[in-house]
Specification:
4 helices; mainly alpha; 12% strand; 52% helix
Length: 171
């Protein structure tokens, strides 16, 4: 975490240094090359971390139930080189789920996809009653059974319940 933050600051500093150099000069060309190597290093570190986490998850379970992440387009919060990334895809979660998927398949483990339109957030995990629209990442109280729970925990429990039902149907 600390190394990643330090590398990001280093990239920003080197980019500012690049802006001070005269385009077309040898120093500018060398700085572009150096900056590209730093960006590549950061990308490789992030990809390596995702592979390690995916392997840890697949080793811990025999059956995996994954929610299919919704990939959307958005503007970057910060850009190393403004203008070079006008739109990026929020694909880190998608890439991570794909890594988990292929690692699990290589190990012969079962994977079940839960698609984004299945009601993980809209149903109370305790009483299975539909709940009025609740925002993600918030605490809410079920109007039927009165349980107070975080929406992510409720969605995780609903996913677990769906997985159990799926296993029972397979047997």
């Amino acid at each position: 975490q600390h190394e990643e933050k330090a590398l990001r600051k280093r990239i920003e500093r080197e980019y500012r240094s690049l802006l001070r150099r005269k385009p077309g000069s040898n120093g500018h060309a060398a700085q572009v090359k150096y900056l590209a190597s730093l960006i590549e290093k950061r990308t490789n570190q992030q990809r390596d971390n995702l592979h390690k986490e995916a392997l840890q998850i697949t080793n811990a379970a025999d059956t995996l139930y994954l929610e299919t992440p919704a990939v959307r387009y958005r503007k970057p919060r910060w850009s190393v080189m403004p203008g070079m990334e006008p739109v990026i895809m929020d694909e880190a979660w998608w890439m991570f789920s794909e890594m988990i998927r292929y690692k699990a398949l290589n190990q012969g483990k079962f994977i079940w996809n839960v698609y984004k339109y299945q009601p993980l957030y809209g149903i109370c995990s305790i009483c299975n009653e539909p709940v009025p629209k609740i925002p993600k990442q918030s605490d809410w109280c079920c109007p039927c059974c009165g349980v107070k729970i975080r929406s992510e925990l409720n969605a995780a429990r609903n996913l677990e319940n769906m997985a159990r039902q799926h296993i029972e149907q397979q047997q």
